[in-house]
Amino acid sequence: MAAGRRGPYRADVREKLRVAAYAVCVRDGQILLARSPADDGTPEWVLPGGGMEHGEDPYDTVRRELMEETGYRIEVTGLLGIDSRRHRFPRAGLRRPATDHHDVRIVYTGEVVGGELRNEVNGSTDMAAWQDLDAVPSLRRVPLVDVALRLWRERPAAGRFAQEQS
Questions:
Q1: pTM of the entire structure?
Q2: What is the tens place of the pLDDT at every residue in 2-61?
Q3: How crowded is residue 57: how many other Cβ atoms within 10 Å of its Cβ?
């Protein structure tokens, strides 16, 4: 077994790690969300944020991503927690091996301090909007929105919900 692995190394499974940073920005009973197409093309609401570039600090990542996706400059006001998820995707034909994908998502709180709300152009999202907190359960959204809102509401001391980790 290779060092640091929990099981035998398999050459036919590609391992992929993605570290990303997101912000929960709430004001006047509304949360700032961005809209992105799901795999099937249907729009769904996501938490503003995204992947870290090599060598980038997560604090800088979340500020950059918020500016790109919403037009706002934010002040990072706190660290809510970390959400860690693994997804296993089966092999797809001869060209794509099976993939063990691991997402590590750092969730901050943020406050808008400048900029103007606008939609991202030629990016991963196509719209940014303030949504009523009470309306979130009726929106088509990614699971991270619910995880982040739960972190924001409950503020667990450990910054995570153990039963939801994979």
A1: 0.84
A2: 444 554 445 578 888 899 999 999 999 999 999 998 888 899 999 999 999 999 999 999
A3: 10
